[in-house]
Design a protein that fits this description.
single chain, 123 residues, alpha+beta, 6 helices, 19% strand
Amino acid sequence: MPPQGESRSDRAKRHPAFRFFFNPNEDLRKAQGMIKKVFQKANITVIERRNYAQEGSVIVWIHKEHFEQAHAIVQDSQVIRNVSSKYESLTNKEARHYLNTTKENRFLQAGQDRGGPDSERQV
């Protein structure tokens, strides 16, 4: 159990992750959900998930006690092979810098303006 008041991002800093890469036309949210379901079926604890649309990737932080089991599932899962073109495993130190990016910054980096009052929309 994480300490009281600890965010998922803070907790994820202590755990390894997988980084999945996708084709540019792939719906990252849908793919992320499919990957999450694969891990849930195997009772693997997913701590945090983040989309990086600009890079065409999703990072999924896995509890360190389940990481070896998760790695075997990633290698064998037909669902993951269908949605992801490749993947890499990241240590907690390698994955930590991805947690420093706020959600708003990720959308801006991806060029996905949310259409706020100051945004210009093209018709």
